[in-house]
Amino acid sequence: MFMRFFTELRQAKVPVTLKEYLMLMEGLDKQVIDRSVDDFYYLSRAALVKDEKNIDKFDQVFSHVFKGLERMGDDVAVDIPAEWLKRLSDQFLTEEEKAQIEAMGGFEALMEALAQRAKEQKEAQDKDGKGPGNGGANSPFGANGYHPEGIRVGQDKGRHGKAIKVWDKREYKNLDDSVELGTRNIKVALRRLRKWVREGHPDELDMGGTIKGTAEKGYLDIQMRAERRNKISVLIFFDIGGSMDSHIKVCEELFSAARSEFKNMEFYYFHNCLYESVWKDNRRRHAEKLNTWDILHKFPHDYKVIFVGDATMSPYEITYPGGSVEHWNEEAGAVWMDRVSNIFDHMIWLNPTAERHWDYTPSVGLIKQLVGDRMFPLTLSGLEKAMKELAR
Question: CB under 8 Å to 102, separation ≥6 — which residues?
């Protein structure tokens, strides 16, 4: 069984090695955990998973191998062992809740009723709302039904929060490297872009230096050092308005994560393509515009430049003077993008639109060409590749 677990993890593209597998076997041999599935789950996950993006794949393989579940999508419908639920109730349910379950005849009666109703109705919920379907309002087995002693089967969320166990819940499915990001996940990816230095006033205790100096001199020799800081400086341009309205949430999360990770970060807004002016406040974008040429010469060339936008526009907005949909631009957007690439050593473009759709929009191809093919999707995998590119 353990060897099957190892091979299925490899088949699911979880990069586990033989060394990690042998370390897990050594831990089991030395009995570092109790003999329970939960303890083994956490031990094996700690030993075999080295990147958060693979946790969801690990969960699916673990369920398939050790819990009898088939690897499926997010909508999983399975048989629930009665003895498992009984043990769970003994641990988490109050005496009053246990009494309510016993009023129905106990767990055995509950499981028998579930099996009988599932047999009678294998498709949609019945009309009286008591079948084990998605809409059984009075059923103890429905995904969306209400019942204090209910069991939820095959749905990722409920309406009343009274199900005994959400069997198909996977805590880390949003960390998969093919999905869009949340603030926490973005922070994890942005941390790959770091260059630690100690600069400034020495205001931090150097414990190692103090111990060494004290040992050498024979008296307490307190030594201080400068705080370690991330030297990376970032300049971000956010596309706003139009087709970007549907990507506001992920852009807000990216902005929040970047502000916390990079102490030296400046940001500006533009629309569709970079032109002769940008702005800091969208509420006063027409009254308080900033000259793009001044911005490009304000920051050193070692700043990392990030454009965030879907690059979806008319190709004329990129290639022709006067192509902007908002004003008459004296120079084409391509001219300004070329200037940015000539001034700054590192530049990328993050696109919140799924990569599979890029080929259907000519303007995306134009922007991708202007940034030297350094356009990345705004997913965990894409952001990791983008940070690797900027770190060169």
Answer: none
Coil vs helix vs strand at 310: coil
Hey, which residues does 267 pair with through a beta bridge? 236
Mean pLDDT by runs of 10 across the 392 residues of the chain is: 84 87 86 82 87 81 70 43 57 65 66 68 53 50 48 47 39 50 64 67 85 90 79 89 86 84 87 93 79 93 93 93 89 95 94 92 94 92 89 83
Residue 169 contacts by C-beta under 8 Å, 6 or more apart in sequence?
Answer: 156
Rounded Cα distance between 271 and 277, Å, is: 10
Residue 79 CA to residue 84 CA, distance in Å, equals 11
Are 99 and 89 in contact by the 8 Å Cβ rule? The answer is no
Alpha carbons 256 and 265: distance in angstroms, whole number: 11
Residue in this structure with the two tokens 């353990």, named with its chain if needed: 2
Q: Please give the C-alpha separations between residue 91 and each of 77, 210, 240, 314, in angstroms, as whole numbers.
A: 24, 51, 51, 61
Rounded Cα–Cα distance for residues 374 and 372 (Å): 5
Structure tokens at 49: 């998973």
Closest of 163, 162, 160 to residue 152, by C-alpha = 163
pTM for the full predicted model: 0.54
Helix (H, G, I), strand (E, B) or coil at 266: strand
Query: In the block, which residue shows the tokens 């998973």?
Result: 49
Residues with Cβ within 8 Å of residue 113, at least 6 apart in sequence: 104, 140, 141
Q: Which of 153, 151, 83 is nearest to 122 (CA)?
A: 153
246 vs 326: CA distance, rounded Å:
20
Q: Answer positive or negative: Cα dihedral of 276, 280, 286, 291.
A: negative
- Residue whose C-alpha is closest to residue 252's, from 299, 186, 337, 301: 186
For tokens 């586990």, the residue is 16
- The CB density around residue 221, as the number of other CB atoms within 10 Å, is 14
Element (H or E) spanning 225, and its range?
strand 224-230
C-beta separation of 369 from 341 below 8 A: no
